[in-house]
Specification:
Elements (H helix, E strand, L loop, with lengths): L5 H4 L7 E3 L6 H19 L16 E5 L6 H13 L18 E7 L8 H12 L7 H14 L5 H7 L2 H5 L2 H16 L10 H13 L6 H4 L4 H6 L4 H4 L3 H9 L8 E7 L11 H12 L4 E6 L45 E3 L5 H11 E3 L2 E2 L3 H11 L3 H16 L14 H8 L4 H10 L7 H8 L5 H6 L5 E3 L7 E3 L1 H9 L10 H21 L5 H17 L7 H11 L23 H14 L5 H14 L4 H17 L3 H14 L4 H14 L3 H11 L5 H11 L3 H18 L2 H18 L1 H15 L5 H14 L8 H15 L2 H17 L3 H14 L7 H9 L16 H18 L1
Parallel strand pairs: 2-5, 2-6, 3-4, 4-5
Antiparallel strand pairs: 1-7, 7-8, 9-10
Helix pairs in contact: 5-8, 15-16, 16-17, 19-20, 20-23, 23-24, 24-25, 24-26, 26-27, 27-28, 28-29, 28-30, 29-30, 30-31, 30-32, 31-32, 32-33, 32-34, 33-34, 34-35, 34-36, 35-36, 36-37, 36-38, 37-38, 38-39, 38-40, 38-41, 39-40, 40-41
Length: 891
């Protein structure tokens, strides 16, 4: 049990139990650095060490990883200062290495905000080495050649100055590069000025190296220099130049030896687990500089020790990186020579994988995990990565086991009151009040926290934000949030502290938070969409969980619906009923369910959304001024599903009530008339609807169906302009999508521009049906072409439309295919298109699409045609057939 967990040892009589203990303090991490550096120095000073040996495994990496905000960057900075040995090393941190080794720390922040690319990384390392005060000619010649090829006309001095590197490292590097170039030119007896000799020097030097001339004997020992100088000087070549740095450093006399310690911070910004291009280049630097030591800090482990990455990285697997292979959570290594330890050390909160490893290795018996896998999974999920929770769970496991009970997963579906006591232990009474208050919120700022706590000043909230369990996201609407486990524990666990809150205390804080959120939204004038969604999400959860009056949520909900952007809005789930459905007991329950369902319309089948909305209406929990909202959208979903009779009843009910959605319902009735092929009625309703009812968009739909694309486009553009004036982004995008479809039939070149605009408008929005319209327009624009892959693209769109449950999108898609086949005069496929349109129009709606497809092919109206065209079937037929002939002539 040496180095193990004594608390676990003294909780059991099981002599076979083994317990490992994790380190948590920064001194431990410093110790790990010191041990790793000593081992590294022993290796690079051993007689058999050769920097040009590219096959020996690498052990020159140490990784600290952990969740964001746990202090990895601070640790990296402290390590840099301590390794510089300039008086900034904490008193409790001992000297990292014994003897006279000269460590040269070089810290590189890889965060995207720092703007570091691979080129800048290599330059930073070389600039740091410039402090040594002597040229490194092999590398410097290669770098100078690379720079002149990749940055013609841009002096390196200016680049270093503008990028801030010169102020950090000085201007020694350009002079050293010039000196190296001049020395080699002199050795080769080349004439001319040094500034114009780069190409000539390189060529002559390569020749001299190949011929092993005595004039370049100083560089002849670098057997790969000639190959690197002959290679194309691109980024790929640059990634191999660090080999030249390693060789140069190895040439230093013993009393001048320097060991670079490169600290690579924010390594998670290098890329993701799929795109490893930059990671591959950085790995080359590490591999090609075995003399240097690299300390990596990031959110995840380095996967270089995983053999599955062969092919993605140049070197992968446990043979290449024995210290980076998957290990259980390590003990802190002692300073004994040859001690084996992992080179990947977790800092702070654990990832889910590391939680699993921790629990599997913390308690073992006979080399096997003592805690069953199902129990480990529950503990890991509830811990949110907090090491303390894992530790308490291990103690609970042993306590249950000691009492003769076999621990089960259900025994760990509870929070630990001890977490509250430990969290509150060193807080002032006001800080405790703020902490409990913000546990009601997903996120908060100082004002929201202070007003929710009912305090007159922000000092307590300000102090609380400095605590480690408060996380900060500067990009968030409200920048602060509690650690998830701390928050859930404060909300749900039994509180035994002296100043615990009563039910009334929690209710009062919830009311203050709800009121403050409403004030924040109203102060924004209703124009800030991000603020609206944030306030709605938090306000709905508070009103639902504490049975509060809706208040400002009513107006906010109407604004959310009006804009039709549909950001995700579902608040955290409550306990469901026996059928797994959300409980609908209060108005807040009903409104939360309605808005959540409407947001999900863009991601789920319309039938499922219709069921959710119908359930809210049946529960009758909404006030009268909100009931029309689910009623209208239920009718809209019924229309999409082809249930026209039910849709018409719902739309008529909303229109007759004369409420906020009456204009929308009248527009819905117009669309139902259009789907039934009654275009004169549709046109009349459109003109009666006016601007408020989006009459121009309805008119555009009418003229589009008649093949009059110019009139349709004019109507759509007018409708788009009206929506732009009102600032309704969703309506702007909807009008633009319809415009793209009209132009796709009439003018492919113009359509391409309109499609680009539609995609830009839709990019920040979540409008599934509208996106389908743009996809169909893209297919139509390419109709008739041999190289457009129309059939395969159409199958993808068809699947998406069927998954969404948007029948009109399916019908429009089949019409686009009919247009394509009519242009190509493919009668067999055109007949198949007509067959699918007949299937989709069973029941009467969408039947006019069959007629349009026939018109495209120049066929007369069907005998059973029911469509009522505004200016007659023959005129409409002539327009559609003309569109086909025009495309056929240009395809």
């Amino acid at each position: 049990m040496a180095g193990g967990d004594l608390r676990a040892l003294f909780r059991t009589n099981d002599a076979g139990l083994k317990a490992a203990e994790a380190f948590t303090n920064r001194r431990a991490q410093w110790e790990a650095v010191a041990v790793a550096l000593e081992a590294h120095l022993r290796q690079i000073t051993s007689p058999g060490f050769d920097v040009e040996d590219l096959e020996v495994p690498r052990t020159n990496v140490l990784v600290f990883h952990g969740v964001g905000g746990i202090g990895k960057t601070t640790l990296s900075r402290r390590l840099e200062a301590a390794l510089a040995d300039d008086g900034h090393r904490p008193a409790q941190w001992e000297r990292p290495v014994r003897g006279d080794a000269h460590l040269l720390p070089v810290r590189v922040d890889l965060a995207r905000s720092a703007g570091v690319d691979f080129e800048r990384l290599v330059l930073t390392i070389r600039l740091a080495l410039a402090r040594i005060g002597r040229p490194l000619p092999a590398f410097d010649l290669a770098l100078r050649r690379y720079w002149e090829h990749q940055h013609p006309g841009e002096p390196l001095e200016e680049y270093l100055r503008s990028g801030g590197l010169a102020s950090r490292y000085g201007q020694a590097l350009p002079q050293q590069l010039q000196s190296a170039l001049g020395d080699v030119a002199q050795a080769l007896a080349l004439p001319g000025t040094v500034g114009g000799l780069v190409g000539q020097v390189t060529g002559s030097l390569v020749g001299a190296l190949r011929e092993r001339r005595q004039t370049v004997r100083a560089l002849a020992g670098c057997r790969r220099l000639a190959d690197l100088l002959e290679a194309e000087p691109d980024l790929e070549a640059l990634s191999f130049y660090p080999h030249l740095l390693a060789w140069e450093l190895a040439q230093f006399p013993a009393d001048k030896k320097v060991v670079p310690v490169v600290l690579l911070d924010t390594f998670e910004a290098v890329g993701d687990r799929t795109h490893r291009d930059l990671e591959r280049l950085i790995q080359r630097v590490v591999w090609l500089m075995p003399h240097a030591f690299f300390i990596v800090t990031g959110r995840s482990r380095l996967q270089w020790g995983d053999a599955a990455l062969h092919g993605q990285l140049d070197w992968a697997g446990p043979t290449a990186w024995p210290g980076l292979a998957a290990h259980s959570l390590p003990h802190l290594p002692d300073r004994g020579p040859g001690h084996d330890y992992s080179r990947q050390i977790l800092v702070g909160d654990f990832s889910p994988e590391d939680c699993e490893n921790y629990l599997a290795e913390r308690l073992t018996n006979g080399g096997q995990p003592l805690i069953p896998a199902a129990v480990r999974q529950v503990i890991a999920e509830r811990s949110h990565g907090l090491p303390l929770y894992l530790d308490l769970s291990v103690m609970r496991f042993l306590e249950l086991r000691r009492g003769g009970h076999t621990p089960q997963a259900g025994d760990f579906e509870a929070d630990f009151p001890a977490l509250i006591a430990r969290t509150l232990a060193d807080l002032t009474p006001e800080e405790r009040s703020v902490l409990r208050s913000v546990a009601l919120l997903d996120a908060f700022d100082l004002q929201l926290a202070t007003r929710t706590a009912g305090l007159p000043h922000q000092s307590a909230a300000l102090r609380l934000t400095e605590r480690p369990f408060v996380r900060e996201d500067s990009s968030g609407l409200w920048p602060f949030h509690l650690h998830d486990l701390i928050r859930s524990t404060l909300r749900t666990a039994e509180d035994h502290t002296d100043d615990r809150w009563s039910t009334d205390d929690w209710l009062a804080a919830a009311r203050r938070a709800h009121s403050t959120l409403g004030d924040a939204w109203q102060a924004g004038g209703g124009l800030d969409r991000r603020l609206l969604v944030g306030c709605l999400r938090q306000g709905l959860a508070l009103a639902r969980d504490f049975h509060l009056e809706l208040g400002w949520l009513v107006d906010a909900a109407w604004v959310y619906v009006r804009d039709a952007i549909w950001e995700p809005l579902a608040p955290p789930a409550r306990d469901a009923d026996e059928r797994g459905q959300a409980r609908l007991e209060t108005a807040a329950d009903g409104l939360a369910e309605v808005l959540s369902a409407l947001a999900r319309r863009q991601h789920e089948h319309r039938a499922h959304i219709a069921d959710r909305l119908a359930r809210v209406l049946d529960a009758d929990v909404l006030p009268e001024n909100l009931r029309e909202m689910p009623l209208y959208y239920l009718a809209k979903d019924q229309r999409d599903l082809g249930q026209s009779a039910a849709s018409r009843r719902g739309m008529q009910q909303v229109a007759d009530a004369g409420g906020r959605m009456a204009p929308d319902a009248r527009r819905g009735l117009a669309h139902l008339s259009r789907l039934a092929g009654d275009f004169p009625t549709t046109l009349t309703l459109a003109r009666q609807s006016g601007r408020e009812g989006r009459g121009q968009r309805i008119e555009g739909d009418v003229w589009w169906a008649h093949g009059d694309m110019d009139r349709a486009a004019t109507a759509y553009r007018t409708a788009r302009g009206e929506a732009e004036e009102e600032g309704i982004d969703g309506e702007v995008a909807a009008c633009q999508a319809q415009l793209t479809l009209a132009m796709a039939f009439a003018d492919p070149q113009t359509a391409a521009e309109e499609i680009d605009l539609a995609e830009q408008l839709l990019a920040p929005l979540d409008m599934r049906a509208t996106n389908l319209t743009v996809l169909i327009a893209s297919l139509t624009r390419d109709a008739g072409r041999d190289d457009a892959d129309i059939e395969d693209r159409a199958q993808v769109v068809r699947t998406e439309a069927q998954v969404a449950g948007v029948k009109e999108a399916e019908v429009k898609l089949e019409l686009a295919l009919a247009f394509h086949h009519a242009v190509r005069d493919d009668q067999a496929k055109l007949a198949a298109d007509l067959g699918r349109l007949r299937e989709l129009s069973e029941g009467g709606d969408h039947a006019h699409y069959i007629e349009i497809a026939r018109f495209m092919a120049g066929l007369p109206p069907a005998i059973d045609a029911t469509a009522q065209w505004v200016d007659g079937a023959e005129t409409t037929r002539g327009r559609w057939h003309s569109l086909v002939q025009r495309r056929r002539a240009t395809a």
